[in-house]
Write a structure and sequence with these properties.
extended, 5 helices, single chain, 3-stranded antiparallel β-sheet, mainly alpha
Length: 144
């Protein structure tokens, strides 16, 4: 017997009963106005917390200039940020992605390309057992 559809959202994380309606700093507030410490930080994307004033100001300023431009075009701020990342890391080049899964896919392709070009015959990539690497085929193949 098919149960009545309660939501059009695919249940990738199981059933959900807790709903957050606002955030401030490192806290989330439920629809019942209960305060929670956000240990997940939006799955590691809210490092400045929720509604940080400096981030809100930067977003408001940018929203009045330009929403999004494809990497098909030169993006001055992106160039500046890439330079800063390279200066402060081991990297010579930076590839900006939209998601963790896309980052994993990029890493797999770069690793395979490097070892193919240099003919090292290395064919295995180290991953973490039980870790979540994303929902793409390449990322899923890294999971056990």
């Amino acid at each position: 017997m098919v149960s009545k559809l309660l939501s059009n959202v695919m249940p990738t994380y199981g059933s959900k009963t807790l709903e957050f309606v606002k955030g401030k700093g490192c806290y989330l507030y439920s629809s019942q106005n209960k305060k929670y410490l956000d240990f997940a930080s939006g799955i590691a994307v809210n490092s400045l917390g929720h509604c940080h004033p400096k981030l809100i100001n930067a977003l408001n300023k940018q929203s009045k200039q330009l929403w999004h431009v494809s990497n098909l075009y030169k993006i001055k701020k992106q160039e500046q940020f890439a330079k800063l990342l390279c200066k402060n890391s081991f990297a010579d080049k930076v590839f900006f992605t939209n998601s963790g899964a896309e980052s994993i896919e990029c890493g797999i392709k770069i690793i395979r390309g490097y070892h193919s070009y240099h003919k090292t015959k290395k064919t295995e990539i180290i991953t973490f057992d039980g870790a979540f690497h994303g929902r793409t085929y390449g990322a899923l193949s890294a999971q056990k």
